[in-house]
Specification:
With about 190 residues, this protein is mostly beta strands. The protein contains two helices and eleven strands, in the order H-E-E-E-E-E-E-H-E-E-E-E-E. It has an eight-stranded antiparallel barrel with strand order 1-4-5-7-8-9-10-11.
């Protein structure tokens, strides 16, 4: 999909991420044979889009770590513990963009930013796809984006693991992150 420049230029403004229509998801290997997926249920963020100069755009997100949900309450309790996210000490995950440039496809961008998890900040690069813009049934102007990246959990101090009898470890190091954002224009 090639995004017409007139559409991009009309996106200039400030947008608030709509948590009811957005998702911050992740996936990680478990026991070397399966993939566990989850998401965070509580977050907020803003996009400041510059349609005539997309590289001047920015994004900020704050995620409540206590809102982790993998569909299993015992696992979620363990993920909130000091073995993993230590949500009492580190109540948020944050992302602040530092650079935006065109991607390989006409409807994609490469967004670089500072991701902070468990008190550790690392630069990460995400591929972001423009999903479209529309006016919803309540008259809100919305924009949608999907973003993808993967990180090493060890880079963020998340090192807890257990060896398996058959070799390998219980939890993989690579965490795939996928984000779907629906944001509402606020100015």
């Amino acid at each position: 999909m090639t995004v017409p420049s007139a559409v991009i230029e009309n996106l200039t403004g400030t947008w608030t991420i709509d948590p009811a229509h957005s998702q911050f998801g992740f996936a990680v290997r478990h026991a070397m044979v399966a993939t566990v997926r989850g998401s965070f249920r509580s977050f907020e963020g803003a996009l400041r889009l510059n349609g005539s100069k997309p590289s001047a755009s920015s994004a900020t997100v704050s995620i409540n770590t206590d809102s982790i949900d993998t569909g299993n309450s015992d696992r979620d309790t363990h993920l909130r513990s000091p073995d993993f996210l230590n949500t009492e000490t580190y109540p948020t995950i944050t992302f602040t963009s530092t650079d935006i440039k065109p991607g390989d496809d006409p409807d994609t961008y490469v967004v670089t930013g500072e991701l902070t998890i468990h008190g550790e900040t690392r630069a990460v690069e995400m591929v972001v796809e423009f999903q479209g813009a529309a006016v919803d049934s309540f008259g809100n102007v919305r924009v949608g984006f999907a973003a993808f990246t993967s990180i090493s959990r060890k880079d963020f101090g998340l090192t807890w693991n257990a060896p398996l009898e058959t070799g390998g470890v219980l939890i993989g190091d690579k965490v795939k992150i996928d984000v779907d954002i629906s944001a509402i224009r606020t100015s």
